[in-house]
Amino acid sequence: MNSFKFFSFGFLLLASVIMVMITALPQEGISTNPAQRLQARGEGDATIPDRPEGVGADTFHGSQFQFFDELGFVKGSPGVEAAPVFLYARTQDELDPCYPESAIVLGSNPPKPNPGSGNKRGTGSANPGADCTDPGPHDGAYTLGRPFPVYLSAAFCADSWRVNYDVYYVHDGVLLEGHRHDWEGVTVVFKRDDSGDDLWHRDSVIYNKHGWRDQYDWRDLQTVQVYVTVIEGSYEYMYMLIGFFQWISDPLEASDILEEMIGNKRAHPKVYVGFFSHSAFAYRCDTCWLTDIGSKSQHLADHEYRSNDWWRLPRGEDMHLWSEIDGEWDYGKATNTPPRNREEMCRW
């Protein structure tokens, strides 16, 4: 029996290593270097220099921002590597969040904007999640939610590069106290690194709160690495531990997603989404008393309920360019669309 267990473990270990090696191999005809792909498409002579010796992987070259739209959302790009972890709350075991979805009608050709739900004042239901996308089965705190689109843009702002992440909801609020459509999100700010002339590191995050904003230094945030590679539709998860690969049944055993310590200065900042207004917060507040549309008042906003029932870290396949959203499309009162935010993020 013991020899069988040893053989099984050895087989799984070997299979895991082989799978990683295969994944690392370049696909035939497709460059694994985003700069080479850029040149192959005739978009210019942009190149991403090799990382200087002794410089950590937490820095990015300026060309990765300058050619943000052309390079795409590949591993190693700042949009992917610094993406926020979005967290959503539920309450009373029956009231669910309005979960994000595509801002474009899926399959429409030519593309059309999502019509939203409810009327101009949002849903008439007492449930914020009415008429919204289902986040997925709930299994307690830190349940992995379903994927959703995130719309990204980048801009150079005097002394920093900024990457903006926008998320779309079909409505906000409850009991006709909100409005149809909602755009909310966060902006990650990168500052020049001491290790090189054109190298940039994560510096801070700007949290959008329905028209006003709070900015936090990276050292003052809850940040995580999220080690787990999730295989959708199964219970198999793989993670790296002391140079070995192991198969486990519970992803939370391997991930640091549960950690809510401040000052870790890891890759991905946590974003707690307001239960009603979808405002973005740096910290959760399970005891906050505000549970109505008053969350849109600047003086009351910090008291909006938010928690950690579902979480999702967007990956490259979830990411879309700001330009997919037509700046002329009408999203009602939700005027902070990705094209507009791209133009205005330097004023924040």
Quick synopsis:
The protein has helices at residues 2-24, 34-40, 62-66, 68-71, 78-81, 338-344; strands at residues 59-61, 85-88, 143-144, 150-157, 160-172, 179-192, 199-209, 212-217, 223-224, 229-230, 237-241, 244-248, 268-273, 280-281, 310-312, 319-321. The chain is an alpha+beta fold and 348 residues long.
Class from helix and strand fractions: alpha+beta
What portion of the residues fall into strands of 2 or more residues?
A: 25-35%
Shape: globular
Report the oligomer.
single chain
Element order: H for helix, E for strand: HHEHHHEEEEEEEEEEEEEEEH
Task: Figure out the total of helices.
Answer: 6
Structure notes:
It is built from six helices and 16 strands. With 348 residues, it is α+β, with helices and mostly antiparallel strands. The strands form three sheets. Strands 1, 4, 5, 6, 7, 8 and 16 form a seven-stranded mixed beta sheet that branches. Strands 2, 3, 9, 13, 14 and 15 form a six-stranded mixed beta sheet that branches. A hairpin with a 6-residue loop joins strand 6 and strand 7. The termini are far apart. Residues 1-13, 15-43 and 230-250 have low confidence and may be disordered.
Lay out the secondary structure.
Elements: H1 2-24, H2 34-40, E1 59-61, H3 62-66, H4 68-71, H5 78-81, E2 85-88, E3 143-144, E4 150-157, E5 160-172, E6 179-192, E7 199-209, E8 212-217, E9 223-224, E10 229-230, E11 237-241, E12 244-248, E13 268-273, E14 280-281, E15 310-312, E16 319-321, H6 338-344
Parallel strand pairs: 2-13, 3-15, 4-16
Antiparallel strand pairs: 1-7, 2-15, 4-5, 5-6, 6-7, 7-8, 9-13, 10-11, 11-12, 13-14
